[in-house]
Design a protein that fits this description.
By secondary structure, the chain is an alpha/beta fold. It has eight helices and eleven strands. Helix 5 runs parallel beside helix 8. The two termini are 13 Å apart.
């Protein structure tokens, strides 16, 4: 039986592909105040600005490709049962070949009805004010904004409880509820944390390995250590 590896990935996972991290040190996202483009209040105040912001992100996504880190994770599926739980809204994990990807914060390539959060549609082009679902309700980006529930957390928790190893990669581990997912892993399960500027992890009883590396460099080292980490 294949060992279960759960990957918790964040913005650093896609940085090598040319996608900027979610929030710069100045608190802006692509030169926008985050609350203007990633909150229900921003949507109510200026929906056209929000739509154009995500149209630009969607266009950017079409211009970039999965990096070596994405590809290495996808290749691991031949030997291990890999579940990726990502805070990223891009589709680079899927484009690299990963087949089990859970997006905590939504997906750029999907939109949903403002009247029904479960009415979700694939959408790869620009989205405009006046684009509606079949009932005539405006469509919005399928993104979890600040102040909104993160329903996919409930799907992620069982994955962590069944993990044989947890790989945290490219995330500051400061954004909740995603940062709290490591707490659901069994205390004997090894945790590997790859980040170019790793944050201080919460105090955990698990055996922890920290690699201050990019996603690609760290994953190459991780794969070499994997048999030892899993006791093979």
């Amino acid at each position: 039986m294949k060992k279960n590896i759960v990957v918790l990935s964040g913005a650093g996972m896609s940085a090598e592909s040319g996608i900027s991290t979610f929030r710069d040190k100045n608190g802006l996202w692509e030169n926008h105040d985050i609350m203007e483009v990633a909150s229900p209040e921003g949507w109510r105040k200026n929906p056209k600005l929000v739509l154009e912001f995500y149209n630009q992100r969607r266009r950017q996504l079409r211009e970039v490709s999965p990096n070596e880190g994405h590809v290495l994770l996808a290749k691991l599926e031949s030997e291990y049962h890999i579940n990726i739980v990502t805070q990223n809204v891009d589709n680079l994990h899927e484009r690299a070949g990963s087949t089990r990807v859970l997006h905590l914060h939504g997906e750029l390539t999907k939109v949903r009805s403002v009247a029904d959060e479960h009415a979700v549609y694939e959408h790869h082009d620009d989205l405009h004010w006046g684009d509606t679902d079949v009932q005539g309700n405006q469509l919005r980006p399928h993104i979890v904004w600040f102040g909104e529930e993160v329903p996919a957390i409930e799907e992620a928790i069982p994955l962590l409880t069944q993990a044989d190893l947890v790989l945290v990669i490219g995330t500051s581990m400061q954004v909740y509820p995603a940062a709290g997912l490591v707490d659901y892993a069994n205390i004997t399960v090894p945790i590997v944390y790859i980040d170019l500027n790793p944050a201080q992890l919460p105090s955990l009883p698990n055996p922890i390995t920290v690699m201050a590396k990019t996603a690609s460099d760290g994953l190459r080292e991780f794969i070499a250590l994997l048999p030892k980490l899993l006791g093979n």
